[in-house]
Amino acid sequence: MPKPKLLPHQIEALYESHASAVRRFVLGVLKDAELAEEALQQTFIQVMEQGHTARDESMRGWIFKVAFNQAIALRRRAQTRDAAVLQLALDPRVSHAMPSASDQVIRDEDLLRAQAALTELPEAQREVLNLRFRESLTFAQISERLGVPMGTALTRMRLALSKLRGILQS
Amino acid sequence: MIGHDDLDLLAVRYVTGELAAAETTAFEARLADDQAARDAVEFAVRIAVVSADDAVAPEMSAAAVSPVRSWRLLAAAAILLVFATIAYAVSAWSTSTTGAVEGGSAVVSTDGNTAQAVTEESEDQVLIASWMAFGELADQEAEDVDQGEVLEEFSELVGVLDVLEPPDWMMQGLVK
Question: What is the pLDDT of residues B86-139, one digit of tens each?
Fold first, then answer.
C-alpha cells in the first residue's frame, strides 16, 4: 500500500529543519543567491509532491539530492556556470539573501558559536580564512601575500576547517 | 578514500570557484550521490558567511543605525533650539521690563542684579545661528539618509524575519 502524501505540518517541519542548510548548499553549488532561492523553492515543491516516497531515516539526504538536481537543472537553464564567480563573503545580494546575523541560514546561537570558534583558531589559520572569505583572495594570492607556499595556505585552511567542524559539532 | 578534512577543503575550493573545470565536474558527480560531500559544501558556505560576517556587519549596521543616529541628532538639535528660543524670549521679556541699555550694554534683571552679560545683538545672533545650524543639520541629514535606502534596509530586515516562517509560496502550495 503506497504511503500517503506528507501532511502540511510535516512539510512545515521539514522546511524548518532543513531549509537553511539546503539554502547554503544550493548557494554553494549555484553561486547565485537568486537561483539558490529558486532551487530551494523547487526543492520543497518536490518535497510536497514526492517527500512521502523518501525513507524517514534518509530524508535529509533525499532532500539534498533533490536540491542538487534542482540546482543543476536551474544552472543549465540559466547558463550561468561560466559566469559564476562566487563573491560569497562580500556580495551584498548574498549577504542579504543569507543575512549572517539574523537569517535562519545561521541562527543566532549558531552564529555566536561559530564566531567564538573562529577566535579559537590560531592566528595563522584565521588569517587565511579572512583573506579567502573577506578579501576574496585566491589561495595563490594568499600564498603570495603571506610569502608561503600555496600548499601551506591550503593546509592552514584545512586545519582551520577541521578545527571549526570539531568545535561546532561538539 | 578522501578524508573529511580534505573533503572540507575541496568543498571550500569548489564554492569559491577555485577548482579546475575537470575537478569541478568530478566533484559535482560526487555531489549527486554523496551526502558527506553535500554536507561539506553546506559547511563551507556556512564558514564563509561567518568568516565574512565582520566585514558585512559594519556595512549593515551603518545603514541600519545611521537613520536612528540622524534622528537623535536632529532631536537633540531641536531641543537645544527650543531652549535657545525660550532663553531669548525670557531675555527679551526681561529687557522690556527693565529697559535695555543702549548700545548693547549689560542687561539688568528685575531684581536689579546683572544677570547676564549678553547683548541683544548677541542673543539674536545665537538664535539665528541656532536656527541656521538646525536647518543645515536637517538638510545634511536629509541628504545623508536616502529614505528609499532606509526602507529597503528595513524591508530586508523584515524579509529576514519572514524566512523564519515557511514562505507563502509553500503555504499556498499546501492549500491547493
Answer: 655 665 555 555 544 444 444 444 444 444 444 444 555 544 454 455 445 444
What is the rounded CA–CA span in Å between residue B38 and residue B121?
Answer: 76
**Within the 125-164 window of chain A, which residues sit less than 8 Å (CB to CB) from chain B?**
129-130, 132-134, 138-139, 154, 157-159, 161-162, 164
Exposure of A53 in the CB half-sphere (CA atoms within 13 A): 8
ipTM surpassing 0.95: no
Q: Say whether residue A97 is in contact with chain B using an 8 A CB cutoff.
A: no
Per-residue pLDDT tens over the stretch B64-89:
333 333 444 445 555 555 555 565 56
State in Å, rounded, how far the first CA of chain A is from the last one: 41
The residues, ordered by sequence, that sit 6+ positions from B98 with a Cβ below 8 Å of its Cβ are B107, B108, B109, B110
User: Whole-model pTM?
Assistant: 0.60
- Give the closest-approach CA distance of A167 to chain B in angstroms: 12
Task: Output the nine-digit C-alpha cell for A109.
Answer: 546561537
C-alpha cell at A37: 532561492
Per-residue cell: B104: 548693547
Q: What are phi and psi of B108, to 5 degrees?
A: -115, 130
Rounded Cα gap, residues A5 and A8, in angstroms: 9
Indicate the DSSP class of residue A98.
S
Partner residue opposite A157 with nearest CB, options B12, B157, B169: B12
Nearest to A64 among B17, B38, B60 (CB): B38
Share of chain A above pLDDT 70, in %: 81
